[in-house]
Design goal:
Blueprint lengths: L1 E3 L4 H14 L5 E4 L7 H14 L2 E4 L3 H7 L1 H10 L10 E7 L8 E7 L5 E5 L2 H29 L9 H6 L20 H10 L4 H4 L14 H4 L5 H12 L4 H8 L3 H18 L16
Parallel strand pairs: 1-2, 2-3
Antiparallel strand pairs: 4-5, 5-6
Helix pairs in contact: 1-7, 4-5, 10-11, 11-12
Amino acid sequence: MVVAISGGIDSAVCASLAVQALGAGKVFGLLLPERDSSPESLERGRALVDYLGIDHDVQDIAPTLAALGCYRWRDDAIRSVFPHYDETWRSKIAIAGGDKGRFNHFRLVVEDPQGRVAEQRLGLQPYLQIVAATNYKQRIRKTIEYFHADRLNYAVVGTPNRLEYDQGFFVKNGDGSADVKPIAHLYKTQVYALGRHLGLPSSICQAVPTTDTYSLPQGQDEFYFALPYQQMDLALWAYNHHLTAAELAETLDISVEQAQWVFDDIEAKRRATSYLHQKAVLLSSVSEV
């Protein structure tokens, strides 16, 4: 199996499970940093492959992304909102609205070299262009994963947990593509528990989930989910098991209105991202296949 290792708990657990199932000699790890990746992510990734004893490769994908225009397209979109933005600045996008019962929308946050932070609500076109550009990162990584899978005659492991899989927090034909997804049924809290049970390095088991996609630090809840993962796990579990908003509110110590907003946001994200799970549309069925 081929596993792209990000330095986070999800890919670490997936790699460890692959080793448990097949042995270290049949698992190949990939560490694929780029310009905006955190150095700590690479350090944790190296610690994991050493711990598991698997063959691996480290490939900086920044030159490929630059050649494709990933950074240029992203920066052009950012400059349409903040004209003085350049490569010395840092940036990220953050979600807002859904946790307050409104439509989800995104804010662009930038930081200049002097540390001054500004933010602005994103219009549709710059938002789409920034996301399209940054999605290059997941798709290039997946291309490299399948190169090595073809070279070795291996299968590619996908690393989404239940929150990500259910709520569409993945890139179509990027990190959403795989031959086997061993933790898609597990809530994030369960993945952390499994990592501890497997004896994974403490630096990984204690790492806070991040997107590791933008140059400014960014938590997954800030980018996509309505709540931090511990609370989001409980909210999704409650929704899946038909608990009421009042019961969730009591558990999370929030108002019933806020709990209902979280339930509504779960439904909204399922609707908005349902296409990510769909197969290609055929004009006519091919019954033999």
